[in-house]
Every structure is written in structure tokens, then in C-alpha cells.
Amino acid sequence: MSDFFGEDDSVEKNNSYIGDDDLITNTSSRLPVCLCLDISGSMKKNDAISALNEGVEAFYQAIREDEQARNSCEIAVITFNSEVKIAEEFSTVDKKGKVHFTAEGGTALAHAVNRALDLLEERKNSYKANGVDYYQPWLVIITDGKPGDPEDIPQAQSRTKKLAEERKLTLFPIAVGSDDNEEKYRQVMDVLNGFSNKSAKHLKDLKFSDFFEWLGKSVTIVSASKVGDKVRLDTTGMDDWAEI
């Protein structure tokens, strides 16, 4: 089971940035979720990139179906291949368009994670400046390959693990692909496991939609709670998409 708490210390863009005005007109407590997505060339295999696109759309739809989640959840998307890009700044789902990621290039994982952490920190500062309560931020890391910036991985892992240990970050590290290449699979899992004291999950059979639907339902559970409350997510649904 996973526990979620409130915070202890209470480039190029494809969508419109909501800015601080939205924090004044919509005073709901916020749950910032940053998706850090691998769109490297290897995501072409078995058309994983299309499954990823469909999964993100399923996530947006799951949030749209719940009024409280629609007002509370703010989503940003970082994509990475050989470069790191802010594909979408933080905004609520009503401001999200249709996603269409394409796969090419390498895997700048460490740089992407660091940029995602920076983006989450920037958004938290906006909440504080506007007196808006917020839940513990979420970071979803999805990758299918060995990092192309291995020299920077230890620093990114240390930074992420420290935030998680201090209950300032909830992490969802997800490995994509089959384990038919045992050495590559082990290396990817080892890297992802290094970001947290909890084990990464292995996505079954490119079931991105199942994962993102589960993530959306988890958002609705947390957004219905009070900031600072201890919340238990229903992990039984993980069986549909994760290799446990």
C-alpha cells in the first residue's frame, strides 16, 4: 500500500500556461503531477509510443470525469530523448489538448528527472506565493532503456530519493518493455530502483492505458482528501498493469 501526505513545508511549450491568475480564481488544493516520459527511438519497438500516447489521453480522461480532480490536479509533461523538453507546462485538464509524441533519439534520463524536479519546485513556490494548499507532488518516470547520461544519474537519484524520504515527493518509476533481453532489463530496473527506496514497477505488455487509468483513479482518491491526511491507494488494480 502507498501512503500520501501533504507537504511537510506547507523551453518549449505546447499548451497555455495557467499562471497565478488561475490560483486566484480556482482556490482548490492542488495536486501537481509531473509526467517524465521516454520518447527515445527504442519506443518505436512494438509501437510503444502509440500506446504511450493513448495512455496519457486515458489519464486526462480519468481526471476529467471527476469534478474535484479536475479542479485540483495540475499536470506537466517532460519528454526526453537526446534532449529534454517541457512538452506541457502545469495546467488543469481543461487546458490540455490531444497529445502526440513521436519516438526518436537517445535517453537523457538524468537531465529529464532533474528538470522535472525543478518544475515541481517552481510550481510549489507559486502555490506558496498565492496561499494555495497543495498535496505532496507526484513524479511519474517512464523509460524503456539505459540512460544516455549515466554520469549524471547518481546525482538525480540522490536528489529524488532525498525528497521521497522527506515526504516531499511521491514517485512512480515505471520500466517499459519485455525482459527477453535480461541484461538490459536488469540495468533499467536497477537505475529506476535507485530513485527511491521502493521498487520500480515493470509495465505489462505495454498496458499504458491501464496504468494511467489507475493513476487517474488514484488522483481522484487523493484530491478528495484533506491536505496532510494519510491516504491509502487501492493497489489491487495494479495487478492489471504491473509485474508485481
Automatic annotation (TrEMBL):
InterPro entries: Tellurite-R_TerY (IPR011392), VWF_A (IPR002035), vWFA_dom_sf (IPR036465)
Family annotation (Pfam families): VWA
Ranges where the VWFA domain occurs: 32-215
SMART domains cross-referenced by the UniProt entry: VWA
The protein's name: VWA domain-containing protein
